[in-house]
Design a protein that fits this description.
Chain lengths: 106, 373
């Protein structure tokens, strides 16, 4: 994960970018808890809102893989489709773990 | 000297990361950022702090962006503040609704920080143009008065600008000019100019130039835009035979970027810390003569401890020896390295002392401005 290039592409310094990436992991994990609660209670709006939040935040920092999965989750939730959310949550969690690991190394 | 106030942008978004991205990217370009994580708090801040522009998320729990902008536009205290929507919703209907409610622009998420910066800049410029005709006139008059009181700033007036200066007019009514100004906490402007001719009118024109710098060298305008606007006014107000050469340096200590705009002026000397000095050449038309003047621009990355020197042609030209600045500047370059260990406030004077000891005989006004990053 080349934080330097990602930072430079956004016009930010690398230290600022890493700080934001760390914050992304924190806020996204919090949004994931909301996703899980939404799935458990069958609340598609709650799921859609949480996915929307992850989509925007990840996309703003250039983590387009996470953003794309969250976008798909949001779209399905808005149609009432919640049975695939658990799998998507796990993929997002894996991506966040990768970011955390990369931050620790850098 | 009154410090320029930075533009204030209020960002309202329920996502903390989005607020942080906006804050980091705009703060380093000279803006002051206020943040609110919901609509109610955002409205309260807008009334209390009167920001210059609002960035507003649409999809928020509780009061959504449409509700917030409706209330902002109904309140006389906040009605005139331009609002830009930030939204992940792409439909045309949503955008039209936003415009009908009074938004001036949309930025779709995920947003690129540099796009946010560009749109904030554009809309602040428009806002100033629409709302501040009277304000600008009043400011002009106040600043011309201020300028006449103290024309040429000294290092003690701007301790954060880290500079030293040598100024000497050959005759009573000098034609050389320099100015230092705060564009924001981390961004400083340095300007050196040389008016053609030495007469009483020159001092009045210098006061006007000082006021123009204060009005046009702000975070929303790029250095080139500032120079072009200043040129446009000078073309209107200067007598036909009058012109000036000038160099405008904008230094952003937060990003380490130095931008130079050159209007027919001798090149800036960059002295990177521990390295040899380099002439930064960029040719440009003179200021105040041509409406469609083209100016030279130079971008350079600088680091803490680097220095750069701006000066007028009196230092490097000699009519007696038939040396113009384009050739003379090259021969003076090593001299700038000789003062690399001298404290920045004393470096220009020290340089002149050495030159005078070596038999240098000034034939014109001289300004030497040394800035340390």
């Amino acid at each position: 994960m080349d934080f330097g290039s990602m930072a430079s592409g956004l016009g930010l310094g690398e230290d600022d970018f890493k700080e934001l990436a760390d914050l992304l992991v924190t806020t996204s994990l919090s949004d994931i808890k909301k996703l899980e609660k939404g799935v458990a209670s069958g609340d598609q709006n709650k799921v859609a809102q949480a996915a929307h939040s992850i989509k925007g935040a990840a996309g703003n920092l250039g983590f387009m893989d996470i953003s794309a999965i969250a976008a798909r989750t949001e779209a399905q939730a808005r149609q009432g489709i919640l049975n695939e959310v658990k799998d998507k949550i796990q993929i997002i969690k894996n991506c966040l773990d990768d970011i955390s690991s990369a931050l620790k190394i850098s | 000297m009154k410090k320029n106030q930075p533009f204030v942008v209020l960002a309202i978004d329920d996502n903390l990361l989005n607020l942080q991205v906006i804050e980091k990217s705009l703060t380093k370009e000279g803006y002051r950022i206020l943040t609110a994580y919901n609509g109610k708090k955002g409205r309260e801040l807008a009334v209390r702090k009167q920001p210059d522009l609002i960035l507003l998320d649409i999809e928020m729990p509780g009061e959504d962006g449409f509700h917030v902008i409706k209330l902002l536009k109904e309140d006389p205290a906040t009605a005139a503040i331009p609002v830009i929507f930030l939204t992940g919703v792409k439909g045309v209907k949503s955008k039209l609704r936003g415009f009908e409610l009074g938004a001036v622009d949309y930025i779709t998420k995920p947003f690129h920080p540099m796009e946010v910066l560009a749109r904030v800049s554009i809309h602040l410029k428009l806002s100033m143009a629409i709302n501040s005709m009277v304000l600008i006139q009043a400011r002009k008059l106040r600043q011309i008065t201020d300028a006449q009181i103290s024309m040429l700033p000294l290092p003690k007036d701007y301790p954060d600008a880290h500079f030293g200066v040598y100024y000497k007019a050959l005759e009573e009514a000098g034609g050389d000019f320099y100015d230092i100004f705060n564009i924001s906490d981390e961004i400083k402007g340095y300007f050196v100019a040389d008016f053609s001719g030495h007469d009483i009118k020159t001092s009045y024109m210098m006061a006007s130039l000082k006021a123009l710098l204060a009005q046009n060298c702000t975070p929303v305008y790029s250095p080139m835009e500032s120079m072009k606007m200043i040129n446009a006014v000078l073309v209107e107000i200067l007598p036909k035979i009058k012109y000036l050469t000038a160099c405008y340096a904008r230094l952003n200590r937060a990003t380490g970027k130095l931008t130079l705009v050159n209007a027919g002026h001798p090149p800036v000397v960059h002295l990177p810390l521990g390295k040899d000095p380099v002439l930064l050449r960029s040719d440009g038309d003179i200021l105040g003569m041509f409406k469609d003047a083209q100016f030279g621009i130079y971008h350079v990355n600088v680091a803490k401890g680097d220095r750069f020197f701006m000066y007028t042609d009196g230092l490097v030209e000699s009519a007696e020896n038939k040396i113009t600045w384009s050739r003379g500047a090259e021969s003076f370059v090593p001299l700038f390295k000789d003062v690399c260990s001298t404290p920045v406030e004393e470096a220009p004077s020290h340089m002149m002392d050495e030159l005078l000891k070596a038999g240098f005989a000034p034939e014109d006004d001289i300004v030497i401005l040394c800035v340390e990053v």
